Amino acid sequence: MRLHFILVEPEVPENIGSCARALNTMGFGSLRLVNPACDHLDARACALAHGSESVLKKAKVFKSLGAALEDLDFIIGATNRTRTLRHEYYSSTQVARILEDKGESVNDAGIVFGPEQRGLSNEDLRECDLLSRIPLFRRQPSLNLAQAVLLYAYEFSRFTIGRKERRMRQADPDELKMFMQKTDELFRGLGIEPSGNLYRRAMERLAALTHYDMRIAYSIISFIKR
């Protein structure tokens, strides 16, 4: 599984450089920037990257979040903001385990971080399959962007550090998408509309299924549709 870190409208070059350093230290190299408000190759960013300038140089820049996520199979939104709409939130440790359990159903996964001052918008979060937050003892002082990226990179480092090399079947990137599509069709047929809270909460829970459980659920959905 390849993991990509996406920063939406980052404002401070030092934060981007620190994020690059965190990723490189934990064995990751894919950094994506959506409408950055600063130059990610600025001298200040390179100084904070400290030996991880290669991550900055390889970083991909996108004009929209949708474009940055287009080739990904599974997307996690990182947020600590309280929302008016109810959502299922998973801790940084939990989402790492969920990703690990996805196994062969995911080739490319992404985790999305919002701007330093306001975080991800509700519209941004709708692009994500799961939402995650870091458990904090107190809300203030909060973690900055680079610290949050480092904590998630550490949790996800189980994919890169101390992992035994083993041959695995290539993941089918359409398997998860097909499962969610079939579930959507079933819900609509039952009158459970996407605009409703039940639909959204159910889809969030289903997105967290392991690869094995997803296949069982897919079989049940196919049986119901028949």
Automatic annotation (TrEMBL):
One of its GO terms (biological process) is tRNA nucleoside ribose methylation. Keywords: Methyltransferase, S-adenosyl-L-methionine, Transferase. Transmembrane segments: none annotated. InterPro entries: Alpha/beta_knot_MTases, RNA_MeTrfase_TrmJ/LasT, SpoU_MeTrfase, tRNA_m1G_MTases_N. Residues 3-154 form the tRNA/rRNA methyltransferase SpoU type domain. The keyword Cell division does not apply. Gene3D superfamilies: 3.40.1280.10. GO terms for molecular function: RNA binding; RNA methyltransferase activity. One of its GO terms (cellular component) is cytosol. Signal peptide: none annotated. Belongs to the class IV-like SAM-binding methyltransferase superfamily. RNA methyltransferase TrmH family. This is tRNA/rRNA methyltransferase SpoU type domain-containing protein.
